[in-house]
Amino acid sequence: MFQQKLNRLLFIAILAPAGLFAACSSSAPPVVSVSTAPSEPTAGIEVEIVQAAALEGGITATGKVLVTEDRTASIGPVHEGRIVRLYAGQGDVVWKGQKLADLESADIDEAEADYLKALTDQENARRTSAAEVKFAQATYDRTKLLFEKEITPRKNLEQAEHDLEVAKSNEISAVSSAKVTVANARRHLLVLGLKDSAIDSLAKKQSLGSSVFSLVSPISGVVVERNATVGATVGSDANLFKIINLSSVWIDANVFEKDLGHIRIGQTVSVTVPAFPGSIFTGRIILVSSVVDPETRTVSVRTEVPNGDGRLKPDMFANVEIVTAARRTAISLPLAAVLDDGGKSVVFVADGNSYSKREVTLGLKSNDRVEIVAGLNYLLMEQSKASQ
Question: What pLDDT digit, counting tens, does each position of 88-142 carry?
Fold first, then answer.
């Protein structure tokens, strides 16, 4: 059976770094020799050197790449408007605060007019109430003088004093009410997209400004959707742009219920994706779901992974390995070098033109490598002695 599989197996050669064999037991494992003649085809056979490697034990699972919720933005107008200019298209990289589109709106003209009227009414209220207070004060002063000369009765003085207090109270109320109206009108303009500087200029000039307002990006990222054309009239329910920031992504993976005892927030996770074989992305667990799927008996585990180069894309499938055992240096081989022989793990050791089958005991698995706990120690010791 093994002779038929030689051409698709990964064989190993023994190279014993100092102290490497100390990690294994000292008994020699059983050996089965398989010979290959020099003329026998050996295409596809690779030889791997046994070596020490840093390994971390872990739990493997499959998952999917997601965009983080706080790095996604849908942008649209807060009121009806007509698109007059576009600054960004699908696929464009934009920065926070960058202008995306200009829209023209009759609502802005109306809101500006309301603001200017509120400013005028505020000034009129201030002047009118101040004049009334001034008149009431003069009446009181005159009545008081006449009372002191016993020319007018006390009731006239009391009435003048009452009128003065009412005038002062009315002044405070009128000015306060006018300020609230101005503040509300200004707030409406801000909601419509006008900046403070534009509103201040409007108040200074006392004339209507531009009816054009701009949409800006609230985050830095890439435009993944643009549903806008120049000349189109859109309402407040329109989502004209969708922007995502992929500098960091989430990967949601399903971990079996039995492994939950080994999972905790903050653990290191190694991630690989089919699109980039050989590349390993590293992240940390930020969320472990409190709900177990009753059908699959799995729990969703969320990992946040830095993605500065943007290689990880939304909806990519991913393989994750959650590190659950301490990192240590151990004898390791590629998983491809280990064969299942009736429930036993075996490897083939290359020696010239022959291959020896050896039973081994496996330990930690990390990515595409596996620790060899026992089975190669005898060869390593012999090789070490021969090299001395």
Answer: 999 999 999 999 999 988 888 888 899 999 999 999 999 999 999 999 999 999 9
Model-level pTM? 0.56
Mean pLDDT of 199-216: 80
Residue 198 has pLDDT above 90, yes or no: no
What CATH number does the domain located at 2-53+328-387 have?
2.40.420.20
Instruction: Provide the mean pLDDT of the chain.
Output: 82
Cα torsion 230, 233, 236, 238: sign: negative
- Residue 217: half-sphere exposure toward Cβ, Cα within 13 Å: 27
Cα angle 251, 255, 259 (rounded to 5 degrees) comes to 140
Q: How many CB atoms are located within 10 Å of the residue 202 CB?
A: 20
Task: Please report which confidence band the pLDDT of residue 297 belongs to, taking 50, 70 and 90 as the band edges.
Answer: very high
Residue boundaries of the structural domains of the chain: 2-53+328-387, 60-68+245-323, 69-104+213-244, 106-205
Q: Which CATH number fits domain 69-104+213-244: 3.40.605.10, 3.40.50.300, 2.40.50.100, 3.40.50.720?
A: 2.40.50.100
Kindly list the distances between the CA atom of residue 48 and the CA atoms of 8, 9, 51, in Å, as whole numbers in the listed order. Answer: 14, 11, 9
Is there a contact between 56 and 327 (Cβ–Cβ < 8 Å)?
yes
Whether 69-104+213-244 and 60-68+245-323 are alike in CATH topology: the answer is no
- The CATH label, of 2.120.10.30, 2.60.120.280, 3.30.450.20, 2.40.30.170, for the domain at 60-68+245-323 is 2.40.30.170
Using CA atoms, how far apart are residues 151 and 301, in angstroms rounded to an integer?
93
When mean pLDDT is compared across 9-23, 179-193, 336-350, the lowest value belongs to 9-23
